[in-house]
Amino acid sequence: MNVNSTSSVPLETVLGVGVAIRRDGRYLLGLRRSALGRGTWGFPGGHLEPGEDPFACAARELLEETGLHLSNARAEGWFSHVDGGRRYLTLYVCGDAGGDAQLREPSKCAGWQWLRRDECPGPLFAPTAGYFACASSASRQAPG
User: Fold this and answer.
1) Is residue 138 part of a domain?
2) What is the spatial distance between Cα 71 and Cα 57, in angstroms, rounded to a whole number?
3) What's the rounded Cα separation, in Å, for the pair 23 and 140?
4) Contact 118/41 with Cβ under 8 angstroms?
5) What pLDDT, on a 0 to 100 scale, did the predictor assign at position 82?
6) Could you tell me which residues come within 8 angstroms of residue 40 by beta carbon, excluding any fewer than 6 positions away?
7) Domain-embedded: residue 85
8) pTM of the complete model beyond 0.85
9) Whole-number Å distance between alpha carbons of 7 and 20
10) What domain range includes position 109?
11) For residue 111, is it within any domain?
12) Beta-bridge partners for 86
């Protein structure tokens, strides 16, 4: 969880999902071309449609962006940040997806790669960085 604004000005809140797919210790990450986070690496994902279930949104976004089908979906935390006068609340949906990722929205993403979190070739999109920070914190606190 991250709350990085205590502004008294009311902000529009935008709900979204980040879909974390992990295979063999690598995550599916794309180089963003859209206005929000341009030039950063992030998970597939996007905004919920009105009335849409977050898991349905995650499955839809993953399919639209990569051609992959989401299975075994589960929520694994959330991230909040402010950008451009809006508060973005991102739910991390983790799951499985077989097959090869396709570049289906080239105006929004330059390409998909399977990367370890420490080998990303550029800066991470804020919600994706938040996911990795939470995952690192949880692994340090795990008993054992």
Assistant:
1) no
2) 13
3) 21
4) no
5) 92
6) 31, 32, 122, 123, 124, 125, 126, 128
7) yes
8) yes
9) 30
10) 12-132
11) yes
12) 12, 83
